[in-house]
Write a structure and sequence with these properties.
alpha+beta, Alpha-Beta Plaits, two-stranded antiparallel sheet, 2 helices, 4 strands, elongated
């Protein structure tokens, strides 16, 4: 049985607090937490996908042109993608800059 956070109380949790329905965080806009966001220079991109591989949120996917880009609805701005991008396609900028 799949239930959502608002439907559960502590009495409904199994012993050990095991969560049986993964993926419930997909309904939350966690991107509003960040103080930095990724920007891209696709002229440098070799489409290796390392940024997507290392993203702890799994929010980086290929766009229509095959370049990898973060879904800012979920991106928390941790900067791991920029750190692991050896061609330096990704640069983290302050969220206020747009």
């Amino acid at each position: 049985m799949v239930t959502f956070e608002g439907d559960l109380t502590w009495k409904d949790l199994e012993i050990g607090a095991i969560i049986e329905a993964p993926g419930s965080a997909r309904s939350y806009e966690s991107g509003t937490w960040r103080s930095q966001r990724p920007t891209y220079d696709f002229n440098k991109c070799i489409k290796c996908g390392l940024c997507a591989l290392y993203c702890p949120e799994g929010c980086i996917e290929p766009n229509q042109d095959g370049y990898f880009e973060a879904n800012l609805f979920y991106c928390k701005g941790c900067g791991i993608c920029a750190r692991e991008c050896w061609p330096r396609v990704i640069t983290m900028v302050e969220e206020k800059e747009q």
